[in-house]
Amino acid sequence: MCTTALRNIDLKSHEGIHPRGGVIDLIPVHPLVNTSLEEAGSVARELANALRKEGVSCFLYGAADEQGRSLVDRRKGLGWFKNTKLPENPSSGWTAVGATPYVLNCNVTIDTKDMAMARRIAKAVRRPGQVEAMAFPHGDGIEIACNLTALDQVPPEQIISNVTDLAGRFGVGIVQRTVIGHTVDRLINLATEALGIPKSLG
């Protein structure tokens, strides 16, 4: 998939509404069953090394990074959000490769262009170890993009409700709600089916 993307997409001429730092913007590796976060980190490093051989600028995060830095911290350090530090190959951009516990994405787009307000909302919904949140311009609004790492404690429905309530206090409505991903049990079922593994062994 990465090779196909690199062959067909030039980031310098590509257009899209969602923020992205590279043709292959992000490769997250998550341990699900019978494996550890450390093993996931090793897989992530192998992927990054393979991409570097193709001329792709990669940075590591989570268990793949020697310092265990988060994706947000790594992107901030590279000036990813301000496009202040260009990768070696501008046509492919930056690729983030890392390993973390399973993450579900929950994104809520609010009907405003007030970034200061959106950042206040993102800060309000953050929870250390459970919810990462940032604000991005998205179409005619701003997306409150959340990574949920403790679904048993903070489900996406709670995030959507919280953002809706906080935006409402500013007199701002919701444009779009998007949940990206599956439950861990659903992912395991999909993986065992795709790999042809008997359920008794999955």
TrEMBL record:
Residues 1-101 form the Formiminotransferase N-terminal subdomain domain. The keyword Protease does not apply. Pfam families: FTCD_N (PF07837). InterPro entries: Formiminotransferase_C, Formiminotransferase_C_sf, Formiminotransferase_N, Formiminotransferase_N_sf, FormiminoTrfase_cat_dom_sf, FTCD. It comes from the Eukaryota. One of its GO terms (molecular function) is folic acid binding. Residues 107-200 form the Formiminotransferase C-terminal subdomain domain. Its EC number is 2.1.2.5. The keyword Ubl conjugation does not apply. Keywords: Transferase. This is glutamate formimidoyltransferase. It comes from Rhodosorus marinus.
